[in-house]
Amino acid sequence: MRTSRTGRAGQYLALLAYLLFLAFPFLWLISTAFKPPRELGSLHPTWIPEDPTLANFRQAFDEQPLLHAAANSLIAALGAALIAVLLATPMAYVMARHRTRLARAATGWVVVSQAFPLVLVIIPLFLVLKNLRLINSMPGLIMVYVVWALPFALWMLVGYVRAVPPELEEAAAVDGAGRLRTLVSVTAPLLAPGIVATALFAFVTAWNEFFFALVLLKTPEKQTLPVVLTHFIGAEGVADLGPLAAAAFLATLPSLVVFAVIQRRITGGMLTGAVKS
């Protein structure tokens, strides 16, 4: 019993240390965002600002078009989330209900595709979008975000579809419902929590994405929020630390809120997909 308690206490301590390790950058970001220039240049920094100020936030909005960039990010993220869900839902249904060799191969390809680094695909992707005349355009960026989010969205939704009892669909078929009617009227309502979680995941992925937006968007008025944040760093690599921290803090809030909502659903979807029926 004593050994069990000691082991459990060790686990909790390790978890607490890991949480502190993860929280340290965000807590330091909040602290920096509210510090005046005098404290930012101090040789003995403190966690809590001695003289908290909102000047960094005002300066950030004065120096860069944060609201316009946030609107661009919102359009790209919402568009990518909506299209990814519309494509992934019927595809996941087919992959979950028809467990053929082709479906298993598709599932394997979904997992393998997540291992591809961004640098590996950016050159062919750029050439394809150039031929389609979608460089420096929001539709082109949304298309890229959909392609990038679709594999994980499929993986999530396949688990949710497998959790829906096939007997419900068989009962609908007995009553005369076709495949499409069954998917829309029977399966889709039961998949609503999974669809919402998948859409929010695609939204967070697109909202935080930086590399594709940096390469594909050229004009300042079309740049997204993560790209605009780099403008707080000067040509010599010197960062305007206070406004940068304030802007980064505001840009991080939507992702934190959305992830706090969906993290249990994402975990549930993964566990559901891991259980064989």
From TrEMBL:
The keyword Transmembrane helix applies. Signal peptide: none annotated. It comes from the Bacteria. It is found in: Cell membrane. PROSITE patterns: ABC_TM1. The chain crosses the membrane at residues 12-34, 74-96, 108-129, 141-161, 182-207, 244-262. Keywords: Cell membrane, Membrane, Transmembrane, Transmembrane helix, Transport. InterPro entries: BP-dep_ABC_trans_perm, MetI-like, MetI-like_sf. It is a multi-pass membrane protein. Pfam families: BPD_transp_1. Coiled coil: none annotated. Residues 70-262 form the ABC transmembrane type-1 domain. Belongs to the binding-protein-dependent transport system permease family. PANTHER family: INNER MEMBRANE ABC TRANSPORTER PERMEASE PROTEIN YCJP (PTHR32243:SF18), MALTOSE TRANSPORT SYSTEM PERMEASE-RELATED (PTHR32243). This is Carbohydrate ABC transporter permease. It comes from Streptomyces shaanxiensis. The lineage of its organism: Bacteria, Bacillati, Actinomycetota, Actinomycetes, Kitasatosporales.
